[in-house]
Design brief:
Blueprint (H helix, E strand, L loop, with lengths): L6 E5 L4 E5 L2 E8 L5 E6 L2 H10 L3 E3 L6 E6 L5 H15 L2 H4 L8
Antiparallel strand pairs: 1-2, 2-3, 3-4, 4-6, 5-6
Length: 105
């Protein structure tokens, strides 16, 4: 996540997470059931859309705007990069978010 200014990696209670300040941008965990998951933040209307899409997406059980997806062979890495960029821009202070090119822009 070097493309996100002031974003850092740390060990979480399970897995690894990336944060900006004290805000979590994404959290990667799993494996014990042979499934890996990554959670990230999204706009409220996008959370509903992801929830209705179903697998590989799911709504996080904590926080109002947390979405997750299963990381698997079929993962669209370009789409995931866009989702993580959006998550960073939602979580970061405006001065840092302004430094990042958003794919949807």
């Amino acid at each position: 996540m070097e493309v996100f200014p002031e974003c850092y990696e740390e060990t979480a209670w399970v897995g690894v997470r990336w944060r900006v300040g004290q805000a979590t941008v994404c959290h990667l965990f799993g494996g014990e059931d042979q499934l890996y998951r990554i959670t990230f933040r999204a706009e409220p209307d996008e959370v509903l859309a992801f929830e209705h899409l179903g697998a590989p997406y799911f709504k996080g059980e904590w926080g109002g705007n947390v979405v997750g997806m299963f990381v698997e062979e079929a993962t669209d890495w370009d789409e995931l990069a866009e989702l993580l960029t959006d998550s960073f821009c939602l979580q970061a202070p405006q001065r840092l978010a302004a430094l990042v090119a958003r794919p949807s822009a």
